[in-house]
Known about the structure:
The chain is of the alpha/beta class. The protein has three domains: 5-87, no CATH class; 99-265, Rossmann fold, CATH 3.40.50; 308-394, Arc Repressor Mutant, subunit A (Orthogonal Bundle), CATH 1.10.10. The chain has helices at 11-26, 30-37, 53-63, 69-87, 109-114, 139-151, 161-176, 191-204, 237-242, 252-265, 271-277, 288-296, 308-320, 325-335, 343-350, 381-387; strands at residues 99-103, 120-123, 131-132, 182-188, 214-220, 248-249, 323-324, 361-363, 376-379, 398-401, 403-405, 409-412, 422-425. It has a five-stranded mixed beta sheet, with helices on one face. Strands 3-10-11 form a three-stranded mixed beta sheet. A three-stranded antiparallel beta sheet has the order 7-9-8. β4, α8 (191-204) and β5 (214-220) form a beta-alpha-beta unit. α6 packs across α7. The longest helix has 19 residues, at 69-87. The mean pLDDT is 95.
Amino acid sequence: MQTDSAFSFNLSDLKSQAKSRLKAVRSGDHHALQSVRQLHPTQTQLNPDNITLADVQFVMARECGLPSWSSLVHHAEMLEHHKQQMEQGCEALDKDLATLHIRCGHDIAQRLAQAGFYGDFLPFIDPYCMGPLTAAPDFERQRADYIRQYLLSEIGDPRTTDDIVTETADKLAQFANPEYRRLVFWVEHDNYDQLMLIRLLAYVSSLPDVADRQLEIIEVNHFPGNTRFIGLGQLPAEGLRSLWQHRRSVDSVTLQKASELWQGFRSPDPAALLGLLNAPWLSRFENMAQVIRRHLQELPHQQSGLSLTQSLALTVLSASGTMTVADLFRGYQALEPLPFLGDLMFWVLLKPLLQGSQPLICLEPSTGAASWLEQTVSLTEQGRLCLSQQQKMVSGTYWVGGIKVSPEQHWTWDHASLSSLHWVQD
Length: 426
């Protein structure tokens, strides 16, 4: 994910934009007036004659996800301060301790260095939000085999299961290296990041020197900007630098509870996760409740048989018609309540809809050697019937964490009320 300028702010530019929008409204620009009315508390009373600069400034702050113009000004000034600190080459923020920065991808590695971080960077990449999460002794090999078979095969990556197992072992060894006195986890609020977090916290809790380590989390579910915040990879270097002051420490109780959460996601029975939803300590993991709920929405819907990911994808296709996988992914992202999939992961979860005697989507004939992203897909009549819950998809076997879904027996619910969750056995 590339840095998005929508998360960079310059106070002078903001002031100029506010004056320009005010001028446009007062000159009779209907579109400009509607854009201000949309987020204004007295929108029906606002008109070109009574609108003020304060009205426009307030709406600009709301558009960025902030409550007031003063808070937007403060945010812009804070980012400018960090930018100046970077330009002046101030001392690294993390130089007081040998630090390892852990992230579920490479997206922020370069910008962390630009932001003035000195420590090493470890990309721990394993999409625990899809595929099996069993408690089997050969768990790491199961994961490696899943990644090779379903993900790497799509992009022509030649790594073997043994290669992936070795890479994971090497990363865990680096993670356990006692030379790192501070471990910092950079995560968002979605399933991909949160499952990586609890998996590694569960691992570090077993290290003999865990009491001597300083464990910290930088966790973000919102950042002011002119577009929807999805991930840390969208932020400029000064934005990442500003998050350092908001990191929180991980104590022994949090480590223990992370292990319980990890066990819950690996359980074959969703009751384990439902029990954790009601645990009084779950507030220690501020985004975990929505992650658990979204995780369980990958179980089949009781009427359509679709996972929520599949249902949202079919909704986009139903409205837009034939489109490329790349465009379909963008449409899906806009509807996804908790974006957690990359485009390749999305495609892997969508491919089962192409299969069977009555596929729900089909690939259009294409000329040339188009990549999977450039392939064109459309909705079949069977897909329309499933989406409208007039027919039920019979899925193949797949995993939702530790929960195995098969055509013969599986858990299902209405994706709205968890009390509707029930076991089906044919």
